[in-house]
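Researcher: Go.
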Amino acid sequence: LSLGEERPSSRRWRREKGAGKLDRATLMIILIIGCTMITQVPVVVVFTYNYFAEGTTAHMIKLPESIPIILHWLLLMNSAADPVIYGVMNPPFRRAYRRFILKVRSKLCRCG
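Model: Structure:
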C-alpha cells in the first residue's frame, strides 16, 4: 500500500472473493445448459416430428438411416461433456486429477 491508499476492509474483500465464485458457477451453468441444448434439441425435434407425423402424409417422408445414429452420438457426447465441464470448472478436482495422472505416469514410466 502506498501513502494515501486505504486498506480494503476484510468484509469487502470477502464479498469480492465470493463474487468470483459466483462468476465461475454462472459460467459453469451456462456451459452445461448450452451443451445440453446443442446436443438434445435435435433429438427432441426429430422424435417429436416422428410422433406427430405418424399416420399422416408427412410421415411418408423418410429420414436418412444415419440420423438415428447421429442423434444417439449426440446424446452420448452430452453425457461425456458434463463431467468434463464440471471437472474443468472445479479447482480441487483439477488438483486431484493432476496428482492422479502424475502418480499413474510415474508407475507406468518406471524402467526395470
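Model: The two ends are 56 Å apart (CA to CA).
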